[in-house]
Fold:
Amino acid sequence: TTDLKAAFMEAIPQEMERLKMLKKEHGAAVLGQVTVEQAVGGMRGIPALLWETSLLDAEEGIRFRGYSIPELQERLPGAKPGGEPLPEGMLWLLLTGQIPTAEQAHGVTGMLRERSAVPAHVQQVLAALPSGTHPMTQLCTAVLALQSGSKFAAAYDQGVHKSKYWEPVYEDSMDLIAKLPGIAAAIYRNTYKGGARIEPDPSLDWAANLAHQMGARLAPRSDELLCVKIASVGSALSDPYLSYAAGMAGLAGPLHGLANQETLRWVHGVQQELGESPTKEQLRDYVWATLKGGKVVPGFGHAVLRKTDPRYTCLRGFAQRHMPEYPLFRLVSILYEVVPDILMQTGKVKNPYPNVDAHSGVLLQYYGITEERFYTVLFGVSRALGVLSQGIWSRTLGLPIERPKSLTIDAMLQHVASN
Ligand code: NMX
Structure:
């Protein structure tokens, strides 16, 4: 079949069976222990969530349905033969667990295209916001405005049986994914191009249509770049519009997705102070000055990973192929040689290596998307594939509401004393 919903439905019975078996046979097995340090340290590393679509390994980075990023670049169908993978293929893989054929990926393109129209009231809400509103705030606002059309919310109101939750959640998720390029482009055009909209081109795929609707005389290959970027997926849960908007509000924090924008600002600061080709010695001093100013070096470090982020490596490979002489890329490459040593010398940074945000902005600059406040929106559009796929599975498997237990300092002290 080239119909994603039919392929997803085929995958359901086996997955339900596996979950039932896991609960029945191993329900009491211990996955890990929780230390006081973890409870006061942001719950880092506590194995406490079922998540089928991706798995993050500290050494190796992320795998989607068991495949690493280089493996996916090799195996997922491209927009052009041998080109960067189509995000539509990624969506197929995340939902079904199977690598799609080119026809199946194109089937998803067609299905999304039919759902892609952004309702007029959402455009009006965006247009009504003050022009300086941060693009991430605009994204959350637009998605919440879309929620009025939620099929899940309507079905729930009508008393739908819980075994059928998955279906309206699936429909909402596809609607939302389909509309995100139009929404992101509207935010871009409202904020930076005086608001004039560019209509979607029905001959283009999902990511290419985003590039097209953003307009702005993008260089050739910018649509391929958006494919590379959009294929790097991520994490959240519940009514797809509300939960995605909540996730986006989290992504908008500077230590999370906003690091994208922060990195570029920081790199521009380097250029302004030290010129186009600073020496390593000058860069070392600059990095130390940032640290001594009580600030983080954006784009470096990770809460889980302990190696260079494979998403960084993937974007670096793209830059090496398409813009090896670009000054900003050369600067980012020298930073890769300089920053980790310094972060190691602080003696506290657990992972001194670059993450995806250290690189993505540089590529966008090269292709003419120079407005860094917009970058996290692109990141958010790409994340929709991952979080919404998992959201569909969570409702399909009937997973319960998440409710981690919190403790006071007194409760922890009492617990420690009584053990
Ligand atoms: N620059 C300066 N200090 C850092 C950095 C950095 N890039 N990374 C970690 N540290 C510090 C951190 O602030 C903490 O200091 P303190 O004890 O004084 O509070 C100490 O090193 C230990 O932190 P870690 O356990 O290594 O890192 P943690 O898990 O707390 O935080 C990040 C992870 C990603 C929030 C952190 O590395 C960071 O702030 N990086 C810069 C911002 C960034 O690039 N964020 C994007 C992440 C994207 N992504 O995850 O993919």
About this structure: Residues 259-366 form a domain with the Cytochrome p450-Terp; domain 2 fold (CATH 1.10.230.10). The pocket of nitromethyldethia coenzyme A is lined by residues 255, 259, 291, 296-303, 343, 348-351, 355-357 (CB under 6 Å). The longest helix spans residues 166-192.
